[in-house]
Amino acid sequence: MTNSPGAAATVAPRSDKVSLEARRRRTFAVISHPDAGKSTLTEALVLHAKAITEAGAVHGKGNRRATVSDWMEMEKARGISITSTALQFPYTTGSGDTCIINLLDTPGHADFSEDTYRVLTAVDCAVMLIDAAKGLEPQTLKLFQVCRHRGIPIITVVNKWDRPGRYALELMDEIHERIQLQTTPLTWPVGIAGDFKGVLDRRTGKYIKYTRTAGGATAAPEEHIEASRAHEIAGDDWDTAVEESELLSADGADFDRESFLRCTSTPVLFTSAILNFGVNQLLDVLTQLAPSPNGAIDVDGNRREADSPFSAFVFKVQAGMDSAHRDRIAYARVCSGTFERGDVLTHATTGKPFVTKYAQSVFGQQRSTLDTAWPGDVIGLANAAALRPGDTLYSDVAVQYPPIPSFSPEHFSVARGSDPSKHKQFRKGIEQLDQEGVVQVLRSDLRGDQAPVLAAVGPMQFEVASHRMAAEFSAPITLEPLPYTVARLCEPEDVKLLARLPSVEVFTRTDGVLLAVFATKWRLETVQRENPEITLRGLVAADQ
Ligand code: G4P
C-alpha cells in the first residue's frame, strides 16, 4: 500500500473496516430439547443460505449420518451429537446485503449442558426451537434460564408445524406464563398444526404461501400474496389467522426491539424445518433483528469495543475429533479487532506469546485453514495445549475476559486406573480431560491423589471420560459412584465444620475452588438451617 493521497482516500481505515465486518456478522446458537429438530433446522439454514446444495451434508441422524464426524464411536452408537462445531456461511438478504452467519452448534443431550453453556457465552443471540406438539420441554427451560441470566436475546421458532400439534395461541400463552417472556410473533400460521399452508407476515400483512417439494430437499418455493387476495386462496384459514393476529396486537404482542434486546420479549416464527418452510424468514429475521457483535465486557466491567485491537476468548477445547487427527482444538470467539493467521498474540493467563500458525475454520466435519477473522467469528486453534476454556488472547492492548463459570456437578465418581503400570498415562489423561472441561476433577487429603473424584453434570460425561482414558491414553479406568447429588461453593474457614457433618464431603477443584458436596438437596437445606453461619453458594445462577 502506498502513502499517496489517492490510496488513502480509497482504503478504509482499519477500525472502520473492523466495524463494518462486525456489523454484518450474526453469531448465534440454536437451543432446544433433543428431537425438536435442531439438526434438521441447521441443515435447512445452511441450505437456504446456499452454502451447500443438498440437505444432509452438515450432520444428521440415521441414514443422513454418512458425512458425520467419526471421532467417537459412542456418538454414533447413541445417535446423538456430542461434538460442537461452528458453521460459517454468507447470506444475502432480499435487499442485496451480504451477512456472515456464524452458527455455533450445541450438543443436544442434557448431560452435556455444561458444553452448551460454554457455547452460549460466545453468541450474541439464541434461537429457541420448540416442537409444536410438545411446547416447552425441560432442556429448553434450563437453557432459556441460562440465556436470560446472560442477557442473550432470543428468537423463538415453533417447529414441526406440518404435524398435528397444539394451538398457536396456546403455545404463546405457555411461553408467557411459564417463562415470563412476552411473545411477539412476526409470522402467524395459516392453518392449524398438521395443515401448514403458509404464514401471515405480521409486518407486511401479506400471505406467504409455501409449496411442498419432494422430500423437502431443496429450498421450498414461497409466494408473497397481497392480503386482498389471500382469502381467495387460503379461505377461512386466512380469516382465522387475521383475527388471531389482531387479537395479538390488542394484547401488545407486536415486535419491540428494545425488550427483545433486553430478553423480556421474543419474536416468534413458525416453521417446518423438514419441509424447509419458514426457514427463509428465520434467516431474514436473524439478519434484520439480531444484534451484531458489539465488543465484550472485560473482567473489570469495561467494554472492549469491536474496533479495538484484537481480542478473543476460548469457549471450548476439544480433543480427538476424528481418528485421523488426534489433536486438540481450542475454539475462540473473536471479540474485537482483526485476526490474521500467523499473528503472535498474548495468552492473558500466562502472559506468554501464542503463535497462531494453525488457525482453522471447522465446517461440519471439514476443516480448512482460516486466514482472517473478525468480531463474532470463531477461530479453531489446533495444537493449542496451553489454552483452557475461559482463557483470553489479545494483541497490542492487554485485556482479560471473565472466566466461564462451571455448572454445579450432580454426579460424582472415584476414578481408579485399572492397570497400576499405567500410572503416568492415568495422570496425564485425567489432567487433559480436566483441562478440556470434559469432567471436573476434585481432590481431598482424605482420599489422596491416586483416586481423584470426577464430577459431572450428566452421567454421559463419565462415559466420554472412560472411553477416552482407554482409547486415547491407554489407561482404562473404573468408576465408583459416590452418593452425592448437590455441590455448593464453600469458604476455607467453614471446611473443618462441614467435613465433620454426615453425608457431606469437601473437595478442592483443580482451579482451587472449594466444593462442599451433599447427598441430597434436603441434606443441603438441613445443613444450611442448622449452621446459618456457613456460607454456601451455587456455581452459576442456573443452579440456584
Ligand atoms: P435434534 O437435532 O433437535 O435432536 O432433532 P433432529 O433434527 O434430529 O430431528 C428429530 C426428528 O424430528 C427427526 O426425525 C426429524 O426428521 C424430525 N423433524 C425435524 N424437523 C421436523 C419438522 O419440521 N417436521 C417434522 N414432521 N419432523 C421434523 P427422526 O425420525 O428421529 O429422524 P429421521 O429418520 O427423520 O432423520
TrEMBL record:
<keyword id="KW-0963">Cytoplasm</keyword>
<dbReference type="InterPro" id="IPR004548">
    <property type="entry name" value="PrfC"/>
</dbReference>
<dbReference type="GO" id="GO:0016150">
    <property type="term" value="F:translation release factor activity, codon nonspecific"/>
</dbReference>
<dbReference type="InterPro" id="IPR035647">
    <property type="entry name" value="EFG_III/V"/>
</dbReference>
<dbReference type="InterPro" id="IPR053905">
    <property type="entry name" value="EF-G-like_DII"/>
</dbReference>
<dbReference type="GO" id="GO:0016149">
    <property type="term" value="F:translation release factor activity, codon specific"/>
</dbReference>
<dbReference type="InterPro" id="IPR009000">
    <property type="entry name" value="Transl_B-barrel_sf"/>
</dbReference>
<dbReference type="InterPro" id="IPR000795">
    <property type="entry name" value="T_Tr_GTP-bd_dom"/>
</dbReference>
<keyword id="KW-0547">Nucleotide-binding</keyword>
<protein>
    <recommendedName>
        <fullName>Peptide chain release factor 3</fullName>
    </recommendedName>
</protein>
<dbReference type="GO" id="GO:0003924">
    <property type="term" value="F:GTPase activity"/>
</dbReference>
<keyword id="KW-0342">GTP-binding</keyword>
<dbReference type="GO" id="GO:0005525">
    <property type="term" value="F:GTP binding"/>
</dbReference>
<dbReference type="GO" id="GO:0006449">
    <property type="term" value="P:regulation of translational termination"/>
</dbReference>
<dbReference type="InterPro" id="IPR041732">
    <property type="entry name" value="RF3_GTP-bd"/>
</dbReference>
<dbReference type="InterPro" id="IPR005225">
    <property type="entry name" value="Small_GTP-bd"/>
</dbReference>
<dbReference type="Pfam" id="PF00009">
    <property type="entry name" value="GTP_EFTU"/>
</dbReference>
<dbReference type="InterPro" id="IPR038467">
    <property type="entry name" value="RF3_dom_3_sf"/>
</dbReference>
<dbReference type="GO" id="GO:0005829">
    <property type="term" value="C:cytosol"/>
</dbReference>
<comment type="similarity">
    <text>Belongs to the TRAFAC class translation factor GTPase superfamily. Classic translation factor GTPase family. PrfC subfamily.</text>
</comment>
<dbReference type="InterPro" id="IPR031157">
    <property type="entry name" value="G_TR_CS"/>
</dbReference>
<dbReference type="InterPro" id="IPR027417">
    <property type="entry name" value="P-loop_NTPase"/>
</dbReference>
<dbReference type="InterPro" id="IPR032090">
    <property type="entry name" value="RF3_C"/>
</dbReference>
<keyword id="KW-0648">Protein biosynthesis</keyword>
<feature type="binding site">
    <location>
        <begin position="105"/>
        <end position="109"/>
    </location>
    <ligand>
        <name>GTP</name>
    </ligand>
</feature>
<dbReference type="Pfam" id="PF16658">
    <property type="entry name" value="RF3_C"/>
</dbReference>
<dbReference type="Pfam" id="PF22042">
    <property type="entry name" value="EF-G_D2"/>
</dbReference>
<comment type="function">
    <text>Increases the formation of ribosomal termination complexes and stimulates activities of RF-1 and RF-2. It binds guanine nucleotides and has strong preference for UGA stop codons. It may interact directly with the ribosome. The stimulation of RF-1 and RF-2 is significantly reduced by GTP and GDP, but not by GMP.</text>
</comment>
